[in-house]
Please model this.
Amino acid sequence: MLINVNTAQDIRSATASEPLTLAEEYSMQQSWQTDTDKLTFIVCKALENSQDTNANDISVQPHLHDAPAQMLGDVNLFLSLSDESTVIGELELMIAEKAQHRKGYGRAALLVFLIYILDHERAIVEAFLRGDGGVKEGPSPLFRFHHLAAKIGKENLRSLALFENLGFVKMGEEANYFGEWELRLKGLTAERVEDLIGRWELGPCVELEYKVA
Model:
């Protein structure tokens, strides 16, 4: 996806990231496909007429439905172990172009991503714990997240409101040294997310297979 320089600077500021060389970018993209401590999805515009079509009749066409003109941003999950050897999932959401902000894309992407995480929680956590060839010592064998977390700049009021509406709670009395709030949520359920999907009239969510010939 091609973006202008000003947009790229805005994205780096919002995500607290540094510019990468082309080689570093390729290396990072490769790691997304193989590493078990992270999970990412590209956020694209909804398929045309998808809400009026039977789920069994919907298919994703690679290079068409995910063409650059359809891409909006990405949503990520980073897995780590706490000092108590519990598994933490940190969420990160980015809608690239300012022209696409305030349209509900970020909210829809985050909610759908959370449904996916909840549906595949055991497999995601187990793959992370077995990523080095053997289960990391210490974590519970339940293969569940202890909590989900997000770090959001104190000026990003829309994102803060979005996560707080999901039940995320700010940790501490003020933002950290980097000007970010850490928010945490424990015990998120599919029922809670589906209730918000219904409240915001986002329609039913259906998981579709993505296959590249």
In short: Confidence is low (pLDDT under 50) at residues 1-8.
